Amino acid sequence: MRSSVKPSHATNDNLKDDLIRRAREVWQPRLGRDLSREDARQIAENMTGFFSVLAEWSRAELPSQANDIGTHDASGNGEARHDR
Length: 84
Description:
By secondary structure, this protein is mainly α. About 60% of the residues lie in helices and about 0% in strands. The chain contains 3 helices and no strands. Helix 1 (about 10-30) crosses helix 2. The protein starts with 8 loop residues before the first helix and ends in a 16-residue tail after the last helix. The model has no long low-confidence stretch (mean pLDDT about 80).
């Protein structure tokens, strides 16, 4: 029987705390004002969401490998192969 190891709530909380702390370190000097913990949490959440959307768009732009099989020649120059 396999058991999956799940991170504890304490581990998740520590990661969140580290992310919030890092957001404050990075953004406070750039904004020129003190950031509350809530400000930093919102910034971290927004940045995470932003990069998640970029990753999703990037995956959507990748060609499907199933559609690419046999359509390019072996030279790798991207030209379609036309056998006669």
